[in-house]
Amino acid sequence: MTTMTEQEQKAIITIALLAAFADGNNNDTERAEVKRIADSLSQSSGADISSLYQEVLLKRASLDSAVASLSSSEAKSLAYELAVCVCDADGLQGDAERAFLASLRDKLKLDAAAASTFTAKADALTTAPLGKQTSFEPSMLSSTMTAAEQDKLILNYAILNGALELLPDSLASMAIIPLQMKMVYRIGKTYGFELDRGHIKDFLATAGVGMASQYVEQVGVKLIGKVFGGGLIGGLLGGLAKQAVSSGFSFATTYALGHLAKRYYAGGRTFSAAVLKDTYTTLLGEAKGMEGQYLPAIREKARTINVAQILQEVRQ
Hints:
Layout: H1 6-20, H2 28-45, H3 49-57, H4 63-68, H5 73-88, H6 95-108, H7 112-126, H8 147-166, H9 170-174, H10 176-190, H11 197-207, H12 211-224, H13 231-237, H14 245-266, H15 273-288, H16 291-304, H17 307-315
Helix pairs in contact: 1-3, 1-5, 1-12, 2-3, 2-12, 5-6, 5-7, 5-12, 8-10, 8-14, 8-16, 10-14, 12-14, 14-15, 14-16
């Protein structure tokens, strides 16, 4: 794929933000999280993403104008794929999200069959059974893990998700949130808790981790880092990769969530919302300081991941 222009990057981020707010059910916490992400992306990149957020929130940004800024077929397909992933991040699409995606597909003039195929694959990742073990996930070392085994499991999930974020395939990034949920499920199970998807979503939300906003952040760091321009991925496969902001983000988020779950379920799920949020913030800061240490392992994992195999296994 050719390198996208700055205008196309901004248009795709705008579409991702519109997708995040498409269901109309975003509460103050979710909006605040998306704003934090926009501010963070603006500060780290120099691109004024925070103003794009304001345009979307105030309904001054339109889908028509964003679509008009996309000239290449690659950029149009990518915009649709990322919008699907944002809408699917917190569960299967509602009526408003389906209507938004149908409108986006029509405005982009995408092939309906190809768009439906991609959506089906994203839905399969979203609804993957929590308790099902797949070959690409870290193995469960024992039925009731020791603290050291839990730490190893969490680290391996963090490395896996950091590696997925390095890959250009949109569905590779889409797998990150379901894998985080499966990790939390497995940790809770070692403490005797049988968790369902709704409980885990509530746990993440209470900790201040918005799933749709998390994917918006992945979209932003990928585009701003020009991952889809070929430079980073080409360097990765050639053994010359530089540290990726996005892989560090996914590594740190997964690592912090894993250790938060470990403390929460070990304590019998008695943490208050304030304690959960404060603990997650502290753990996230610690995890960000570890990114450089595990970057070689993330790169190595990225070289061996087979995205097609991942999709096949979770759909079985």
